[in-house]
Amino acid sequence: SFPWRQITDNTDKSVRFMEPHWSPDGERIAFQSNLPSDTGRPVNQIWSIRPNGSDLTQLTHTAQHAVSPVWKPDGTVVAYSVLGGQSWLLRLGTPHAEELPAPPNRSMQFIAKTWSADGRRIAGTLHRPDGASDGIVVYTLSDRRYEAISSFGSAPVWLKDGNRLLFRSGFSLYMEDTRRHLAVPLTLPSSIHVSDTFAISNDNRWLIVSSSTEQANVWVARNMR
Question: pLDDT grade, residue 225 (50/70/90)?
Fold first, then answer.
């Protein structure tokens, strides 16, 4: 068995720690939390911490909720989104943060979710003013351009080839070829209703899902390609 170690302090039950993401080198974990911050506002900020629980560091200083930290593959930048605003790129170790442009439909908000392995593109979801998802888009950093990928779905995850994405819609998973704009549903056992959580192994050969109809059982599927 693996020893468990709690690395954040939940003595104050009103404080939440959410969306933890390992840095590419495994040295830090970024997350969002409503911990008391230097802004004095009771909103989520992006924080980072070492795996042993030391060096808790506030990364953002926003007036509104900062959510969804996403590491650039080289570990130098964290993308995050500000609810009611836009997404930002924060270069670690500096005070510099770059605001991404608004999507073409300015009533929508882009929430960054996953960074391609080559560091060139960020996939995320569009959200309507009421917070509902309006599909998946990809932002290309070099030309500062958004591209609509799917009119439905959420929680996109890049495959290592930088061209294909996995995403969830309802209780199903889909694979999207971003070059051909073709979404194909994955064939999973009929008893599996995919919940909010799924993950891909680093070598892209294993898919791990949790099923909302199997009392949180975990299923593993191997990519035979």
Answer: low
Please give the DSSP secondary-structure letter assigned to residue 225.
-
Radius of gyration of the chain (CA): 18
Q: What is the pLDDT of residue 219?
A: 47
Tracing tokens 């009421």 back to the chain, one arrives at 130
Token code pair at residue 161: 């080839």
Q: What is the reported pTM?
A: 0.85
- How crowded is the C-beta side of 1, counted as CA atoms within 13 Å? 3
Spatial neighbors of 171 by CB under 8 A, at least 6 apart, are 192, 193, 194, 195, 212
Find where tokens 């926003």 sit.
Answer: 62
Q: Are 79 and 122 in contact (CB under 8 A)?
A: yes
Supply the mean pLDDT for the chain.
87
Closest CA to 128 of 145, 114, 153, 109: 109
Q: Which helix (H) or strand (E) holds 150?
A: strand 145-150
d(CA 78, CA 30): 9
Residue 225 tokens read as 């390609």
Place of tokens 């495994």: 26
Question: What are the C-alpha distances in Å from 75 to residues 49, 107, 109, 208?
Answer: 14, 31, 25, 24
β partners of residue 133 = 127
| Closest residue by Cα to residue 83 from 44, 115, 114, 113 | 44
Q: Edge-to-edge, what's the strand order for the sheet holding 218-222?
A: 194-200, 206-211, 218-222
